[in-house]
Write a structure and sequence with these properties.
- GO terms for molecular function: porphobilinogen synthase activity; zinc ion binding.
- Catalyzes an early step in the biosynthesis of tetrapyrroles. Binds two molecules of 5-aminolevulinate per subunit, each at a distinct site, and catalyzes their condensation to form porphobilinogen.
- InterPro entries: ALAD (IPR001731), ALAD_AS (IPR030656), Aldolase_TIM (IPR013785).
- Pfam families: ALAD.
- Its cofactor is Mg(2+).
- The chain has 428 residues and is α/β, with parallel strands linked by helices.
- It folds into 2 domains: 73 residues, no CATH class; 302 residues, TIM Barrel (Alpha-Beta Barrel).
- Helices cover 32% and strands 17% of the residues.
- It contains 12 helices and 15 strands.
- Strands 4-7-8-11-12-13-14-15 form an 8-stranded parallel beta barrel, surrounded by 9 helices. Strands 1-2-3 form a 3-stranded antiparallel sheet, with no helix packed on it. The protein has a two-stranded antiparallel ribbon with strand order 9-10.
- Helix 5 crosses helix 6 and helix 10 runs antiparallel to helix 11.
- The two termini are 48 Å apart.
- The relative contact order is 0.10.
Length: 428
């Protein structure tokens, strides 16, 4: 069958809709016709419908068989398609210059959202987040002044509601931090391993309602110490290492007994990872993981957190056991020790100001790497957003992506719920 394309176009008013099944009037529709000719059959006009300007309308078919379409093209009667778009015009005054002799132009892979998405090297999902939650003995949720949007949650009510929201957004990992009554604090922090203390009770309640929830715990004495330090303080102000490790082992076992999935020593005592691993295994908790605060720096970014837990040191600072922010290679020493002692996850704290340390651990250890986007980082982004100095949501997401790009597998962040909701909205 031979056919030719008829160049003139007829207006829609010239088409009898009753004779063309599937057509409906549209003033924007554009049509062209094919004139079919055959020796054996009389000529007939075939309708060709171009892509509609209304993108919601579907393109109408010609009613031709595959063989007829191929025959028409072979005969030189190629169906019309939209013309080649005109070349965009540069603004007036643009200099006319010869093209640079570049064999590689990286911008080619960035020129559209689809291409940028296709070549994105780092991904971010709610599964990467661990949500730090503050708990207390009270019934009501108490706002934390230095951390807008964060609360000390009542362990029986507010906490359960917050965990439900997080799970709905895809965040199924949390880490608990307790605000312990002052009357229960002591120089040796014995409340840390009370099986009926705030943290063990909370773990049991959470596991009863959400058995698949991944619960991380903090292993350190500062919330339980009347001195506010991570370890036992000698009368001359020295933090006692080995005696503190003894207490930490009992604390970790108590948390594991309650149902914790991952215990997280944040104290920075020497040898505590190996001692905790041995204590857990001796009690039959071989399945409980250890996330070690491998590179925890004596940072000024922790201030809002200490307000949240009312755990500021009563005297001095934490520089004799937390790392010097000026040190880089020292993180490798801590990494090798924690690996050899049986750590399952290595954590860097703080996060964004220490991206180089995250990358250092990523490049030198096969273990999963965690980063803690700490309270100071969170509060600065929140404050900048309130003052309209930055776009809070965009800066939040960029900061989290940067932590992932540096090498963090998981991120402890107070933005976990907010960021997860943003990601869910993007996916929809």
């Amino acid at each position: 069958m031979a056919s030719t394309i008829v160049k003139p176009r007829w207006s829609f008013s010239g088409i009898d809709c009753q004779q063309h099944v599937g057509l409906r009037p549209s003033p924007r529709a554009k049509f062209s016709f094919l004139q079919a000719a055959s020796r054996r059959q009389p000529s007939r006009r075939l309708l060709v419908v171009r892509a509609s300007e209304n993108h919601n309308d579907s393109i109408k078919k010609l009613g031709m068989t595959d063989a007829e379409c191929e025959a028409a093209v072979v005969a030189g009667n190629v169906p019309e398609a939209p013309p080649v778009p005109p070349k965009p015009v540069a603004p007036a005054g643009t200099p006319v210059v010869p093209s640079l002799p570049l064999s590689r132009r990286p911008r080619r892979n960035r020129r559209s959202p689809a291409l940028r998405s296709a070549f994105q090297e780092t991904s971010l999902s709610p599964a990467n987040f661990v949500y730090p939650l503050f708990i207390h003995e009270g019934e009501e949720d108490a706002p934390i002044g230095a951390m807008p949007g964060c609360y000390r949650l009542g362990w029986r009510h507010g906490l359960m509601e917050e965990v439900a929201k997080a799970r709905d957004a895809g965040v199924n990992s949390i880490v608990l931090f307790p605000k312990v009554p002052d009357a229960l604090k002591s120089p040796t922090g014995d409340e840390a391993y009370n099986d009926n203390g705030l943290v063990p009770r909370t773990i049991r309640l959470l596991k009863d309602k959400y058995p698949d929830l991944v619960i991380y715990t903090d292993v350190a004495l500062d919330p339980y110490s009347s001195d506010g330090h991570d370890g036992i303080v000698r009368e001359d102000g020295v933090i006692m290492n080995d005696e503190t490790v003894h207490q930490l082992c009992k604390q970790a076992v108590s948390q594991a007994r309650a149902g914790a999935d991952v215990v997280s020593p944040s104290d920075m005592m020497d040898g505590r990872v190996g001692a905790i691993r041995a204590a857990l295994d001796a009690e039959g908790f071989h399945h409980v993981s250890i996330m070690s605060y491998t590179a925890k720096y004596a940072s000024s970014f922790y201030g809002p957190f200490r307000e949240a837990l009312d755990s500021n040191p009563r005297f001095g600072d934490k520089k004799t056991y937390q790392m010097n922010p000026a040190n880089y290679r020292e993180a490798l020493i801590e990494t090798r020790e924690d690996e050899s002692e049986g750590a399952d996850i290595l954590l860097v704290k703080p996060g964004l100001p220490y991206l180089d340390i995250i990358r250092l651990l990523r490049d030198n250890s096969p273990l999963p790497i965690a980063a803690y986007q700490v309270s100071g980082e969170y509060s600065m982004i929140k404050a900048g957003g309130v003052l309209k100095m930055i776009d809070e949501e965009k800066v939040m997401m960029e900061s989290l992506m940067c932590l992932r790009r540096a090498g963090a597998d998981i991120i402890l962040t107070y933005f976990a719920l907010q960021a997860a909701r943003c990601l869910c909205a993007e996916k929809r």
